[in-house]
Design goal:
Number of domains: 2
Number of helices: 17
Strand content: 15-25%
Distance between the termini: 19 Å
Helix content: 25-40%
Structural class: alpha/beta
CATH class of the largest domain: Alpha Beta
Shape: globular
Oligomer: single chain
Length: 468
């Protein structure tokens, strides 16, 4: 089940689960599990499915399904990852005890992980994959979702598939999507095409990039009618400054944008203001911490690279320094109140996972602690135990997958081989309400949009040889 932001993937998936639950052979017999590649994506999946099931509560059995549905887990947790190995406790000999497995953010799943997942599924289980096939492929080998969805734009449903679907519901598949020679795999692929919340300039920009229309993308970025999309003027980005150790950091205009925001789009000053105010009383500490964490998630700077004046490291240093200079944070030293951090390695003992974002907050007698928002609850961890973290004012586009922010700032470096259409599209689609592109020059944008990533894993050719 593939589609862009707001096309209704989890909306549809929740209804699939409700239907499968209603059709189960006997009461309580269907074992349903939810999973995603990262902890953050898993938490979002669970929240989204729960929200959709509430809307279906009047239907028979949905209340029981909601009650029985456990928390969404990471794929590593689901499969029982063994420390310091690439092996899992769950496999063909010890399969998962599930009848239906729903996996979100499937574009992030690499070839080896997908093989392990399929190996661990019972032969009779149903697997539902959700994801945006046009996003960045996994960091490791393969582009599994992209290959599975090859040809999805054309539909290519056979007349038999079309007739079966029409018998189940009143809708007809439009004739252009019917192909008597449609491959067996595409009879199991659904592409959702209409976005219900991702319209306006951001949606149009994402569509233009996805279509490879660089001229249209540039025109949308340079328009001034819709504040949802803005281009940071190029001349302001051509004068990088230098840190005391002569390491290049980002241009002042870019740092100002990240801190102060623009046109109603929040910057990091918003969360820093809440942090500085502190809780009104000790009893209100949890509510205050949640507000700070939620305010921080309203904005994020996304980078294509880690090093150099356009990279994650330089921007993290520059943003912290600017907040410090404004008196909003005291960002000196390895740890300080308000330091946002991203976990870079799963730590099940601490209850934090790769991709989790938290903030160092003062807790009175316990000093600074790393605080993470997990669903509707807080997890507090001693900063001395948070070894595998990085400052998170800026992060790579890859690291942002599975997350969304009210205001996303995408930073593209000068001519770089790593820029691609998928990276730019993924950065744009992290934005809910506002998107700003900070770009060295328009040629960089044009070249990135024209560069499409191709991975030759051989997966599709092997699937094509399987019997229908």
């Amino acid at each position: 089940l593939t589609g862009g932001p707001g096309t209704g993937k989890t909306h549809t998936a929740a209804r699939l689960l409700a239907l499968l639950w209603a059709l189960r052979s006997q009461p309580g017999a269907l074992r349903v599990a939810l999973a995603a590649p990262t902890g953050k994506a898993a938490a979002r999946l669970k929240q989204s499915i729960d929200r959709e099931l509430v809307k279906l509560a009047a239907l028979p059995g949905v209340a029981e399904l909601s009650q029985r549905l456990g928390p969404a887990r990471t794929l590593h947790s689901l499969l029982g990852a063994r420390p310091d190995t690439r092996r899992f406790a769950r496999n063909a000999a010890q399969p998962l005890e599930v009848d239906v497995l729903l996996v979100d953010e499937a574009s992030m799943i690499h070839l080896e992980m997908m093989a392990a997942l399929l190996d661990a599924l019972p032969p009779t289980a149903r697997l539902i994959l959700l994801g945006d096939k046009d996003q960045l492929a996994s960091v490791e080998a393969g582009a599994v979702l992209g290959e599975l969805c090859t040809g999805a734009e054309q539909g290519r449903y056979t007349p038999q598939t079309a007739q079966a679907l029409q018998a189940l519901c009143s809708d007809r598949i439009p004739q252009p999507f019917i192909d008597p020679a449609g491959p067996a795999l595409l009879q199991r692929v659904v592409m959702l095409r209409k976005s219900h919340r991702f319209g306006g300039a951001i949606g149009q920009l994402a569509q233009a990039v996805n279509a490879g229309d660089a001229e249209r993308a540039q025109a949308l970025l340079q328009q001034t009618d819709d504040a949802a999309v803005r281009l940071l003027p190029v001349p302001q980005l051509l004068a990088p400054v230098f840190s005391p150790v002569l390491a290049p950091v980002a241009a002042p205009a870019l740092v100002d944008l990240a801190v102060q925001g623009r046109d109603g789009a929040k910057g990091y000053a918003h969360y820093a203001d809440l942090l500085r105010q502190g809780p009104t009383a000790e009893a209100d500490w949890d509510a205050w911490a949640q507000r700070v964490l939620q305010a921080f998630d309203q904005c994020r700077v996304l980078c294509a690279v880690r090093e150099g004046p356009w990279g994650v490291q330089a921007l993290n240093e520059a943003i912290a320094a600017r907040l410090d200079a404004l008196g909003l944070l005291h960002g000196r030293g390895a740890w300080y109140a308000g330091r946002p951090v991203m976990v870079t390695r799963n730590d099940h003992d601490l209850g934090v996972l790769n991709g989790d974002v938290g903030i160092a907050l003062p807790t009175g007698t316990q000093g600074l602690r790393g605080v993470f928002l997990q669903g509707q609850s807080l997890r507090s961890v001693s900063i001395s135990r948070l070894a595998d973290v990085q400052t998170a004012f800026a992060m790579t586009v890859h690291q942002s997958q599975g997350s969304e922010f009210d205001h996303t700032v995408l930073v593209l470096p000068e001519r770089h081989a790593g820029l691609s259409r998928e990276l730019i599209y993924t950065g744009i689609t992290r934005a809910r309400r506002f998107f700003t592109l900070a770009c060295a020059d328009m040629q960089t944008l044009h070249e990135g949009i024209q560069r499409v990533t191709h991975r030759a894993s051989g997966l599709l050719s092997r699937i094509d040889k399987l019997p229908a």
